[in-house]
Sequence to fold (254 residues):
Amino acid sequence: MNDSRSAVRVLEVLETLSMRSESARLGELARDLSIPKSSLHKLLNTLVNRGYVERDQYERYRIVESFRRGFGWVGGFEAHLRAVSVPIITATRDKTGETVFVCVQRPDLDAQLVCKAVSEQPIRYDAQEQSRLPGYATLMGRVLLAHTNPAAIDSYFERTELRAITPRTLTDEAAIRAELAQIRENGFGAIEEEYAQGGCGIAAPIRNAEGDVVAVVDIATVAQRYAERREEMKAAVLETAEAISRRLGHRTDS
Fold:
């Protein structure tokens, strides 16, 4: 297959998936696109590895939801972050057996999920892609808030209702601010059943070439496994955050 034909087929795959409201199997796509299964499988693997397409546990494919809105997949920070992160978080998922998320901060200082690698265990933690996550009550939101301009944090608390989502949700501003300070000091954060009962996580910031925190990576799991493997997950999330940061150009001081 020549280069121009390969490029056309990549676009055809993305266009076809963007028009489908549900996931599709390899055979369905091969039939609709008139592409041999072997060739299509290679194209789909590339798109999955680069973060443009998702493959579920049933070997069904769908375009990443944010790309359905337009041509954002060809550029922009989130597209670059997704392309960099997906292979790394997939490897972390395979190593730990747990779900791994990457989030960015919204203009309103809540967090937004941009990509994930979901655990294949029968009991696992998951969230919808492009989910909006409250900054004060979720770990990913807190890690991002912890590295936000202090004046912006003050404004966030002034306009945000700190309501309980589970019985363990922190709703005291001073207590949440103390958590943010602890995250900055430790270089990572942890949460237990504050956003979802039975759900726990540990997360670390992702930095760009200038050293700015631009995203967060989180290993999310269920309470029992978290209690048993907390230190292992901490090491894995710090390693994952460093790997993604390095791909974004960040270098730690020697």
In short: The mean pLDDT is 89. The first strand starts at residue 24 and ends at 25.
